[in-house]
Amino acid sequence: MKSRFLFLASFLFLPLASLAGPYLIPVGHEEAFMANTGIALPGSPGNVIYNPAGMAFAAIAELNLTVSGNALEQQRFELDDLREENNSNISIRPMMAASAFPLWNGYASLFVANPTSLKIVQGQNTVAGGTTTRTTFRLESNAILFGASYASLINQSLGWGLTAGLTYTTQDYHSYTAFTTAGAAATAFRDNRTKVTQFHIDPGVMWKALPNWTLGFSVIYLPFSFNSDGNEFTSSTNSSSPTTVTQNNVDFDPDNSQEYVVNLGQEAVFGNQHILFDISYGSSATENSAQGKNTNPEHWTYSAGWKSASNSKWQPIAGFAYTDYRRSENYLATAGIMLQQRKNELGIGGYYQKNNSKDPNSSPFEGFGVMFSSNVEY
Fold this sequence. Notes:
Number of strands: 18
Order of helices and strands: HHHEEEEEEEEEEEEEEEEEE
Radius of gyration: 23 Å
CATH superfamily: Outer membrane protein transport protein (OMPP1/FadL/TodX)
Distance between the termini: 53 Å
Strand content: over 45%
Number of domains: 1
Structural class: mainly beta
Helix content: under 10%
């Protein structure tokens, strides 16, 4: 069972921590309620992390503040042999806060986003082949993205934008395993910590090709890191040599490659119905570990969103996204309602996510929860 959890942590959450991939959990303003679709969505506070050019089409007269995130969520692993004495505690808390305001001939924004805030605490007991294995581990991963954006119109139908800032990612992993057989026992301890600070730059353009058709293009690029530190300490004992403790301490540089994502999206308006569709391609990324190099494969994401503007006070909104990581695939479905009150907007809704590994020996993961977003103009 331990290998199943390690496989899941490696291929579900590490691409999130790198920030050079699609967001697997809803994050943003209206984008979050459309399964993170929004490369061609104009005038949304979430433009700062999807396509900054969308801000050029905003209609902000004063300071505009946005806060969004998850209010409640639940996750679970589908393990057939998970017994009552095994336990797990999983917590994910993505969020975004942004301020937007007029500046020169366009709009500017300062923002912070925490698309990954993950904690897994797992304890499990297994018996196989006469060996009892007791394992506990804790995985904590955080990714914080902050920076500034600026966007302006080139003409009435074409806008450009640029986001620049820093990403700060940390990951702490601790595990302890005890193996017991008739007349013999062994223990193993592992402590792994990484910290990476990267510069990111995200240019974008948005073109209203027709009154009811908008195209968007953006790039997420992480060209270099300011610092990248990793350390792993391992210790093990064996009852065949009870006075011997085997220890190893390794320092390494976890960041080893430039990463980028290319995004293309469109929005079509049919009366009061808004239909959006995005395609994203993420490059492969090589990371160093204490054991050597690991490569996260390239990935594709296809997402679609829908919003109805038939009512001026409340608007239903929904979306679906699929991400193919070669060794795993992720599904995300969202739905909610945007409530309008003068120039203020409140969104509430829910999401369902499932990650299927293409390895038959690994187990699926699913999560669902309640999300919110509030946008206020002063």
